[in-house]
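EI: anyone free to look at a 284-residue chain?
SC: sure, send it
EI:
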Amino acid sequence: MSQLEGYSDFKHFLITSPSEYVAHVEINRPSKLNAFMPDMWIELGGIFAKLSHDPEVRAVILSAAGDRAFTAGLDVQAVEQGGLLGNKGEQEDASRRATKNRRQILEFQECISQIEKCEKPVICVMHGVSIGLAIDIASSADIRICSKDAKFAVKEVDIGMAADVGTLSRLPKIVSSFSWVKDVCLTARGFGADEALAVGFVSQVLETKVKAIETASKLASFISSKSPVAVQGTKELLNHARDNTVADSLRYTSVWNQAMLQSNDFKAALLSGLKKTKPRFEKL
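SC: here you go
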């Protein structure tokens, strides 16, 4: 595993390349259970915006350092010190305070949404404590895998707020039961890996974090061997289909493929199937 060139300046994340065209992003604050401070979510957004257009990357793994947690959510103390929980002792016009809050929330949402907006497929690997912001982050990924020790919770109701960074918007479109979504979001109760698998929040549960990372690495490498034109197009079209009608999605697909079917990748993939050879695709 080598350092991914051009990504050494990020303070709170380790970014490596375990195999050709695969990037591995690790949240790196294990001493604090990988809890997020404001500068961390800004960094996260910047990393995924950069990976999105990096021709050396075709698939991304997102995990976290340490054995105890993927992330325990927000570092409340750091957020409070940063003034995001309101003024102390200062009177401020309500509308001006509300405007600041809205801008901060939108900035936070945009940083997390960069995972979903990344043109490359993102595989999220969770382990241990995975609560609050962990669900927002994972819900933005394309594929979710966890280890057997993962402990999940949509925790925001327990801290006196409605989740506002993506869980309430994305989770109902991911799992099979809207009743279950309301159950875990309204109660803030915990749930484990088996329950997450049963409702479709994750697609695989592995015995340990190491095995989960190995599984994600093999999957990312396999995806990276495919045509980047086809893979990135498939992610775009699936995300569009999720948020639009069937008719609109079919129309969008026809417009997309009227251009993308002219790619050399289409011909190379067809010929390799006939010749039983492994195709190589140009960088995108």
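EI: The chain is about 50% helix and 15% strand.
SC: 👍
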